[in-house]
Task: inverse folding
């Protein structure tokens, strides 16, 4: 049916004068019939009539061809809401009206000839009814564009129930929606990448739950159809209502979502990756979910300082959620932890999957969450460090994705608030540091013995001993750290005289390293939490090298002249310097000296045949004196620094992004006195 035809019978049913000039059911029906005929539609068979009480229904068998039909039903005086639906040979609803009036109408185009059923229900009120069918109309509009599908859309979702398997084809439906996992956001949320899907058509099903259940929806596609599934709660059209999404479950022919759902209405979308479309089968199963109160009552005890192992499967329930880790929408386990007195608590989990760890005071109350961690050093490690009062706590071994499965190990360690005993807790028992070998450290049981000159007045600390046989360039950095941006790395000759030390805020990555040239001798390296009641694990790495090559490179660097362009290549060079941008700039570099005689605006423009980087230091060999750094300006091949510099000598570095990035380039310099 074209747009004009659809508008005509819609207006008739709304009660426009031209269609209601005759009273009663017969008069109204005759007016609609005349309008349909004037539009070129033919009545199919005779009208069906009768009367129904409230809640009663009647089925009318019809033989239909593979073409388009308009179905209309009228309720007489006393009827308030009649519902009309078309059922296929399996008694599945494939079309129907979505209004709540004393009349019902819908347009549907069939792909296959067969025996169908028109089902009329007196939803509200009671009284007589009339049902008629008109044949004709088109599935395309006047411009030849495909019309909207009449079933499997948000306006007319196909009902589905647990235990049911249905088949379908997305090819004839519109493309209006997409799931978050098709937008590069992982399984219902996560880090956003460039959109990956959204052009594929979808078929929408409606699912109603009377009680909380774990619902599993499995999709299997035919041929090369790369299918996808997602579920929304309450609102079909609101992407924020999504509660589960999966693209590939093992391969591109399968998708699966398993999630615990509260009572209410849900919409299941059978969709595709990219522009994929085709045939599929969909199976919905459900199992009753134990209440949070039942699960909490049976929570296993978690003994302090004793690791426990467990396993999650896709058949396990998602009972609890959290503030982090995609709200922890995957399967979970809960443990009860007794803390006898105020203590330092370090919770640590290692898993085969993307785990989430969270902690509550009251098991069933999400508002009592104490802390939550998704990723520590990677997605398979989670850790919580906190000082907690005495009491009962609940620890949740949870998961980021709804389909998470695998093994985990969980441990809850307790220590006195003042500190316990740990290697390197004092200068006297400092742990030997071997350059080039990373050490695993932890301030969890450390005392606050020393104060970093570049950190807060308080903070737990551990001490390492570094021996330099000759004058050396020393680099120290965190490869991983729970201390975040608060931890510090301090180096001193005399462990008791911190005021004479040099230090560096301990941000993670070699680009943020402590980088100094030190004379021969023994040094103490102090890792400090640099914040009150703050502690955690870290991995400290170090490198010691002869400083002469770097110093010679600094001394012999050519001088840049304002208004001139220099060219060169970094290919085949050596990586001796790093930066705070460009992934650390751990590629070969070339150096230039820049002499500024008076306060000036300096503009440096790099054009490279590789992913280049540009940075500027006040002291060539001291990374801490970096004044500016740029990786990409307009694109990866261009970098730009524009800044105001006071009089002095500076070093300009032409480097590459990350590792092994090098090639030819040009560098322009403009110095404008102010």
Result:
């Amino acid at each position: 049916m074209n747009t004009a035809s659809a508008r005509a019978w819609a207006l008739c049913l709304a009660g426009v004068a031209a269609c209601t000039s005759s009273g009663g059911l017969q008069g109204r029906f005759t007016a609609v019939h005349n309008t349909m005929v004037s539009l070129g539609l033919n009545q199919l068979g005779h009208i069906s009539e009768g009367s129904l009480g409230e809640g009663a229904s009647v089925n009318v068998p019809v033989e239909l061809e593979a073409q388009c039909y308009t179905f209309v039903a009228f309720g007489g005086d006393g009827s308030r809401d009649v519902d009309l639906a078309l059922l296929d040979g399996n008694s599945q609803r494939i079309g129907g009206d979505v209004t709540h009036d004393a009349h019902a109408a819908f347009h549907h185009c069939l792909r296959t000839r067969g025996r169908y059923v028109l089902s009329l229900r007196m939803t509200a009120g009671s009284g007589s009814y009339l049902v008629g069918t008109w044949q004709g109309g088109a599935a395309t509009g006047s411009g030849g564009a495909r019309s909207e599908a009449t079933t499997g859309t948000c306006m007319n979702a196909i009902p589905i129930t647990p235990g049911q398997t249905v088949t379908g084809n997305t090819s004839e439906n519109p493309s209006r929606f997409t799931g978050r996992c098709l937008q590069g956001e992982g399984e219902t949320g996560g880090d956003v990448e460039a959109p990956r899907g959204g052009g594929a058509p979808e078929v929408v099903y409606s699912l109603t739950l009377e009680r909380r259940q774990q619902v599993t929806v499995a999709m299997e596609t035919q041929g090369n159809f790369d299918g996808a599934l997602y579920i929304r709660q309450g609102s079909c059209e609101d992407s924020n209502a999504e509660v589960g999404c999966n693209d590939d479950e093992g391969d591109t022919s399968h998708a699966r979502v398993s999630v615990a759902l509260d009572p209410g209405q849900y919409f299941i979308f059978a969709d595709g990756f990219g522009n994929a479309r085709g045939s599929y089968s969909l199976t919905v199963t459900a199992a009753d979910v134990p209440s949070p109160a039942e699960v909490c009552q049976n929570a296993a005890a978690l003994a302090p300082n004793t690791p426990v192992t467990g396993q999650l499967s896709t058949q396990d329930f998602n009972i609890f959620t959290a503030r982090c880790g995609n709200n922890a929408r995957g399967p979970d386990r809960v443990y009860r932890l007794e803390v006898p007195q105020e203590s330092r608590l370090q919770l640590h989990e290692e898993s085969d999957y993307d785990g989430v760890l969270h902690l509550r005071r009251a098991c069933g109350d999400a508002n009592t969450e104490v802390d939550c961690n998704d990723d520590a050093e990677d997605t398979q490690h989670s850790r919580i460090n906190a000082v907690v009062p005495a009491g009962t706590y609940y620890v949740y071994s949870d998961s980021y994705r709804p389909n998470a499965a695998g093994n985990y190990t969980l441990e809850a360690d307790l220590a006195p608030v003042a500190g316990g005993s740990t290697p390197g807790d004092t200068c006297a028992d400092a742990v030997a540091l071997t350059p080039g070998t990373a050490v695993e450290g932890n301030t969890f049981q450390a005392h606050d013995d020393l104060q970093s000159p570049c950190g807060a007045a308080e903070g737990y600390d551990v001490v390492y001993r570094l021996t330099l046989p000759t004058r050396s360039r020393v680099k120290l950095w965190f490869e991983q750290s729970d201390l975040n941006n608060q931890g510090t790395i301090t180096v001193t000759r005399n462990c008791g005289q911190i005021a004479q030390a040099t230090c560096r805020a301990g941000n993670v990555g070699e680009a943020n390293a402590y980088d100094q040239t030190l004379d021969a001798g023994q040094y103490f390296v102090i890792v400090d939490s640099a914040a009150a009641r703050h502690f955690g694990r870290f991995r400290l790495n170090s490198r010691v090298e002869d400083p002469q090559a770097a110093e010679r490179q600094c001394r012999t660097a050519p001088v840049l002249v304002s208004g001139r362009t220099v060219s060169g290549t970094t290919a085949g060079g050596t990586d001796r310097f790093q930066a705070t941008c460009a992934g650390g700039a751990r590629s070969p570099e070339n150096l230039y000296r820049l002499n500024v005689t008076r306060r000036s605006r300096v503009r440096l423009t790099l054009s490279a045949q590789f992913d280049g980087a540009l940075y500027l230091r006040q002291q060539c060999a001291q990374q801490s004196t970096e004044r500016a750094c740029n990786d990409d300006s307009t694109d990866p091949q261009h970098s730009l620094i524009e800044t105001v510099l006071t009089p002095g000598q500076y070093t300009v570095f032409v480097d590459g992004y990350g590792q092994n990035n090098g090639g030819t380039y040009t560098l322009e310099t403009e110095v404008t006195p102010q």
